[in-house]
């Protein structure tokens, strides 16, 4: 099992390394404000930067929750009837679903604050 997982993960890493060079860009001519989307005051404000960071954080949390959903499904399938493993997989699944619900509530809360309170 560990050997197969190691082969799969090393294959994914090798594929990423092989193709990551195709999408790179030379950043020698870019300014820091171009990277940060105008954080220096040109075309951006602090509140828009905070909103962008919140959206990124919520997106990463949702991605982690989906990853945990997939992992808990794998744990459940590979439990082979072992009660301890099934219970652990069920707890992981429950917490992953709770995490997704929290992410969706956070998105709705941020949108509510943006549209009703900050305007």
The helix content, as a percent range, equals over 70%
Order of helices and strands: HHHH
Q: Which regions are unreliable across 5 or more consecutive residues at pLDDT < 50?
A: none
Radius of gyration: 21 Å
Tally the helices.
Answer: 4
The structural domain count equals 1
Beginning-to-end CA distance, first to last residue: 55 Å
Structural class: mainly alpha
| Assembly state | single chain
Please state the average pLDDT score. Answer: 79
Apparent shape: flat
Strand content: under 5%
Question: How many distinct beta strands?
Answer: 0
Largest sheet: none
Pfam family, one: T4SS_pilin
Keywords: Membrane, Transmembrane, Transmembrane helix
Describe the structure in your own words.
The chain crosses the membrane at residues 48-71, 92-114. InterPro entries: T4SS_pilin (IPR043993). By secondary structure, the protein is an all-alpha fold. 76% of the residues lie in helices and 0% in strands. The protein has one domain. The protein has helices at residues 2-20, 32-35, 46-77, 83-117. Helix 3 (46-77) packs antiparallel against helix 4 (83-117). It is flat and about 55 Å long.
């Amino acid at each position: 099992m560990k050997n197969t997982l190691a082969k799969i993960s090393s294959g994914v890493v090798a594929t990423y390394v092989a193709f990551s060079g195709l999408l790179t860009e030379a950043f020698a001519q870019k300014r820091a404000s171009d990277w940060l989307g105008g954080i220096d005051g040109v075309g951006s404000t602090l509140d828009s930067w905070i909103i962008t960071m919140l959206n990124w954080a919520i997106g990463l949390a949702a991605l982690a929750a989906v990853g945990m959903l997939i992992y808990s499904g794998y744990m459940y399938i590979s439990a082979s009837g072992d009660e301890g493993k099934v219970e652990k997989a069920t707890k992981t699944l429950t917490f992953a679903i709770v995490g997704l619900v929290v992410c969706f509530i956070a998105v709705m809360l941020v949108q509510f604050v943006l549209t009703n309170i900050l305007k």
